[in-house]
Structures
1.
Amino acid sequence: MRFMVMVRATADSESGRLPTREEFERMGEFNEQLIKAGIMLAGEGLQPSSKGARIRFDEGRATVIDGPFAETKELIAGYWLVQVKSKEEAVEWFSRAPMQPGWTLELRQVYEVEDFGDNVTPEMIAREEQLRSRA
């Protein structure tokens, strides 16, 4: 099963403060452990919301709202995408992440096609696989 592990934003991450060399080294060592264990599929830090946008949909219209966004606690500063055997395994790994005091990680399981049951036909699955193979 796949999990998205999201790093919640802080005032520091929203200010654009970059990690120190030591923080980069510790995170690099942790990522290396994830890669060697064969569970890390992707992982990146995100720039502050001041460089982002939101797109809100209302009654068939899309409205673009430029950042920054006020509620830091609702923002994401980075993520990992991992493949593990269970939520417990993901929690075990990320309980050891080299995070700063006060930082929060949120783990969310990614839907797999079989989770949707009969709402997804074999034809829809084949089309999606074909489109992804082109990317």
2.
Amino acid sequence: MEITVEARYNGPAGSGNGGYTCGLVGVLLGGPAEVTLRRPPPLATPLRAERRDGGVAVYDGDALVAEGVRAEVALDPPAPVAFADAEAASRHYLGFREHAFPTCFVCGPARAPGDGLRVFAAAVPGRDVVAAPWAPAPELAGEDGDLRPEFVWAALDCPGAFAVGFAGRGELLLGRLAARVDHAPRPRERCVVVGWPLGEEGRKLYAGTALFSDAGDLYAIARATWIEPRSAAA
């Protein structure tokens, strides 16, 4: 088996978006899964995926890039955020002023509408969450008309970083993402992505993210481990 992170789906310049890459691995496993990134995923490079011990290991040559296993994602989501409130919050997206990865496929403000996902999660007044509106583009759908799962994983990625203070820390990198997709939205369907902090330990920061329908139905949920590079933490 092979997977390829096309050049369009970058996170930091020159490497794959973590959530999208984890989603590709998650699709190989089917159902809820936890994926650990061992090194920055290379772009436009066929990566070998091997079944191993009930999971999947992904290699670039002999270098281990990612490991995935089936996993339960037991996480209580916060109350949904109304679409209008998410729109209002996103106008104050801190990434508009400063962003370590401005061309990130998911949250980069330098990506044009229709190119990047432009999921701009920002603080919701009176609550300890960030939120962003999202209406997936038709081109992200599979043959069944639903959004392809890897793009749901991608949308669940970056809001978690902003929930744990990405904008004020200068740089964070996704280390692990566990996600459960219960329902994939339809193209152009109005959705809200919510992120919230789950604590921290040294250079590791933990976040939850959830995707809700406009009506407040839970579509997907994830738990992420973010890593603050030593240079940024110093």
3.
Amino acid sequence: MHAAPELTPRPHRIRQLAYADLPRVLAIERRAFPTPWSLAMFVLELSKPSGICLAAIDGAELGGYLICARYDQAYHLMNIAVDPDRRRRGIARALLDAMIERAGADANFTLEVRVSNAAAITLYESYGFRSVGTRRRYYQDTGEDALIMWRALGTPWETA
């Protein structure tokens, strides 16, 4: 018997997300989430100059994206998605690395994540995010709670 080959992270090119990326973003969004963002939501976030909106190019096409809004005291990671066929290749990590690099290693970040999304919670914890509470029935599609996570000023984070 042969063992299945391991999926090893490959280098990904990270660049600014562009309006021209939105058809592919919407296709990934629909496959990745039960309640996808609308085109208008993406356009609004891309129009904000203070936000961090990133595209991960995997091979020759967009494999994932990240939307992070800038508020007074912190950045809010609003949306991060990887094409389901391209998961476990390091794309989410590459996007998070680039987000932190652009914001500054000492920037504060917050996010909400489904309490059932153990893989995402583990990933965020590896970047120094910690749970600070719960938003009850946050997700309208299922009524599921959201875990509120923060990465506070100066928290060490790992990339491995």
